Amino acid sequence: MEETLSLQELLKTMKKRFLLIISTFFLAVTIAGGVSYFFLTPIYEASTQILISQKESERDQFMAQDVQANLQLVNTYSVIIKSPVILSKVVDNLKLNTSLELLNENIKVSSEQNSQVINVSVQDPDLEKAIDIANTTAEVFQEEIPKLMNVDNVKILSPAVNTKNVKSVKPNPILNMAIAAIIGLMLGIGMAFLIEFFDHSIKTEQDVDEFLGLPLLGIVSPITQKKLKKNKRV
Predict the structure, then answer these.
(1) 138-149 residue pLDDT tens
(2) CB atoms within 10 A of CB 88
């Protein structure tokens, strides 16, 4: 019985403060959409692929061994790509006005499971700059890896290119608005219950019994201006 009563009170409060809840909901969505579309800087992403392979002359004889060894080297190569040895040359070649730490944060290196292909992705507000950084990083890595590891098994499989109608990867206005909608709805409901919890003013005859515990002896009907004028004439 108490659970049913609590549910009824819950629905009653939400219905009573519906305007507040719906206003908070739309306000949150509007703010999130406005900030996402007009204030946040679009971030673009460019990617290049690097293939870890073996020498052509050794391919038939040591195929299985080389593939397994190359798979084990993928993780090592992923670390080397983002190392200062590589990134410092990328900064120098492109004359970038950025620190190695910031450049490192904007570069993401990944690989598929049991794959000899390494993906190098770069994010930047300037798409052309992101493309240049991705391609230069792959080229510098290809040049430096024989000196660092005494191997020559790196090939650029797919360089980054500029295609038409490239969409930004950040921000995601739809996702931001969806999150804001949930937060706005929760905030509106929370505010409604807080107001209801701290509001002890007596507005109806039911409130007299609920808050004061006194019996209701009578009700004074509101007197309108029309009734007041009518009474004066009489």
Answers:
(1) 999 999 998 888
(2) 13
Average pLDDT over residues 217-222: 62
Quote the tokens at residue 140: 């510098």
Taking the C-alpha atoms of residue 216 and residue 209, their distance in angstroms, rounded to an integer, is: 7
Q: What is the total residue count of the chain? A: 234
- Tell me the Cα Rg of the chain: 34
CB 43 within 8 Å of CB 169: yes
d(CA 123, CA 103): 9
Please compute the mean of the pLDDT values over residues 61-77 and round it to a whole number: 65
Contacts for 167-171 with beta carbons within 8 Å, 24 or more apart?
168/42, 168/43, 168/44, 169/43, 169/44, 169/45, 169/123, 170/40, 170/42, 170/43, 170/123, 171/36, 171/40, 171/42, 171/43
CA distances from 75 to 84, 121, 140 (A): 17, 16, 18
- Residues paired with residue 154 on neighbouring β-strands, in sequence order: 52
* Partners of residue 43 on adjacent β-strands: 170
d(CA 87, CA 133): 9
Which tokens in the block code for residue 230?
């009518």
Between CA 82 and CA 15 the distance in angstroms is: 56
75, HSE (Cβ side, Cα atoms, 13 Å)? 5
